[in-house]
Design a protein that fits this description.
alpha/beta, nine-stranded mixed β-sheet, two-stranded parallel sheet, 8 helices, globular
């Protein structure tokens, strides 16, 4: 049966995995509660992973995750665009109902309302450590930041990586040679509620996937003795595409494929950290995308596979996305 991101979130919010009356975590509990890890790609299409039919490059870590868990073939996001999809994931609500439509702009006067309850806030009441390393895109004013919505730690971009003065197709040119857009400020990178880097440059963007992965692995190690919720919403493969030196050309299938290979590596590093700390069996790991591919960017965009259209449309290619879930302690589900 087709499912959606908001239905997944609603199940967690309703306590499907944690009893409604469950007490806060205590180290004396015989069976500690499960950990939750959500890796959220940006604009990744239905046909962009090996286990969903991608050709010309490999995604071994994600394919292995699918083989060990469940590969959903009819999973739908709430809307085919960034902010709305993320609002649904984190609150379990239809995004229109909570006033998050489309993709929020820098310095937006609106954002995720403080009255809305997020997964992070619910899990904190159960004693969970919470963190987001990656793209937020639910408001960049102080009252909208992740740290005001249940996340203990935040490191990442407040909105999409193309919301800066450079056009995506010219992002790799020297700044003084690239055409510039009007109305976009320099791109910031946040550490908690503080701007750690501004402007974020092309060189910084090339390190984002690595930085987010390193933070995620470190967070797992620091919280191995208590339950945690780790949210890793990657900036990639949203345009402009950037890749670290260690993965440039590795796929032999172009820049987009290199970017997907680095995301696959990121998932592998997170899975290895869980295994290294003995957390694999009691951790639900989810990998999915916020919407389908942004097709107008040609070979810098992904593939919807057999589906029609992509991002920003209500056709299948816009709202039907890869979704992989693994929780060894519960066992493999059948769909």
């Amino acid at each position: 049966m087709p499912t959606t991101i908001y239905r997944l979130a609603a199940c967690l919010l309703a306590g499907a995995t944690l009893p409604a009356a469950a007490p806060a975590f205590s180290s004396t509990r015989a069976e500690p509660p499960p950990n939750f890890v959500i890796v959220f790609a940006d604009d990744l299409g239905y046909g962009d992973l090996g286990c969903y039919g991608a050709r010309g490059y490999r995604t071994p870590n994600l394919d292995r995750l699918a083989a060990q868990g469940t590969r959903f073939t009819s999973f739908y996001v709430a809307q085919a665009v960034c902010s709305a999809s993320r609002a649904a994931l984190l609150t379990g609500c239809y995004p229109n109902r909570i006033g998050i439509l489309g993709a929020l702009s820098p310095s937006s006067k609106t954002g995720l309302n403080p009255a809305e309850l997020t997964l992070a806030e619910v899990l904190k009441t159960r004693g969970y450590a919470t963190a987001i390393f990656g793209k937020w895109h639910l408001g960049d004013a102080p009252e909208f930041l992740p740290t005001r919505h249940g996340f203990d730690e935040y490191f990442g971009l407040p909105y999409s990586n193309d919301m800066w003065p450079l056009h995506p197709e010219y992002a790799n040119l020297p700044p003084d040679a690239a055409p510039r857009k009007r109305g976009y400020p320099d791109l910031p990178l946040f550490e908690g509620e503080r701007v750690a880097i501004r402007p974020v440059t092309a060189a910084h963007q090339a390190q984002l996937t690595t930085w987010y992965t390193e933070r995620a692995v470190d967070f797992i190690g620091r919280h191995r003795d208590r339950p945690f919720f780790l949210y890793v919403p990657h900036a990639m493969p949203h345009v402009p595409l950037f890749i670290s030196a260690k993965f440039r050309g590795k796929s032999r299938a172009g820049l987009y494929a290199d970017v997907i290979r680095e995301i696959d590596w990121s998932v592998g590093e997170i899975l290895r950290a869980l295994r290294r700390h003995g957390l694999e069996e009691r951790t639900l790991v989810i990998f999915t995308s916020d919407n389908g591919p942004w097709l107008l960017y040609g070979n810098h965009a992904g593939s919807a596979g057999p589906l029609r259209e992509g991002k920003a449309t209500t056709f299948e290619g816009g709202v039907r996305v890869p979704f992989i879930a693994r929780w060894p302690e519960i066992g493999r589900a059948h769909v």
